[in-house]
Amino acid sequence: VGYALAIVSCIAQGSAFELGRRVAQKKQGVAQVLYANSVVAIGLQIVLLLGTGEYTHLAPATLTGEVLVHFALNSVSCLAMNYVIFLNCLVNSPLAHAVTGNIKAALTTLFGVMLFAAPLTAYGWVGVFANFGGAAWFTALKMAPKTRLPTGTTAADRV
Questions:
Q1: How crowded is residue 86: how many other Cβ atoms within 10 Å of its Cβ?
Q2: Which residue from 15, 35, 38, 111 has the fewest beta carbons nearer than 10 Å?
Q3: DSSP state string for 102-114
Q4: What is the Cα–Cα distance from 142 to 150, expressed in whole angstroms?
Q5: pLDDT band for position 137 (50/70/90)?
Q6: Which residues 6+ apart lie within 8 Å of 36 measured at CB?
Q7: Tens of pLDDT along 78-91?
Q8: Helix, strand, coil: what percent of the chain each, to 5?
Q9: Is residue 109 within 8 Å of 128, Cβ to Cβ?
Q10: 95 in Cβ contact with 14 (< 8 Å)
Q11: Could you give the CA distance from residue 158 to residue 145 in angstroms, rounded to a whole number?
Q12: Beta carbons of 149 and 157 less than 8 angstroms apart
């Protein structure tokens, strides 16, 4: 289940980054880009909540002051993170951002294993090697000598 959710996450992130890039190319403001990404994310979250049955755990939640403070802090940090990701995707490609995130996830997993002496299962090792393998493949494609592209293709078709 974890790998299926990771694949869904990668597809959703890539789609959100590409949507943000396209909206930004149309010279839309930051607010419009973040709004478009939020609308896409809410739809996907609703589908996942209903599809997995996770929505049943939402009903008994109690809204204490502590919960509301945590919710507000989380909302502000997510807003700041989305804004920084938007700025990053203006400078770098969305794919480069996603690959960097995969490398960070793999390194974080390895550091966690080393620092906390936590065992890593075979599935965990497959995930770490898949992240590093994808990053190496992306780097090899980006560093390959630029050759003349066939008629009707763009540089984006190479990646």
A1: 19
A2: 111
A3: HHHHHHHHHHHHH
A4: 18
A5: confident
A6: 19, 20, 23
A7: 778 777 777 777 77
A8: 80, 0, 20
A9: yes
A10: yes
A11: 12
A12: yes
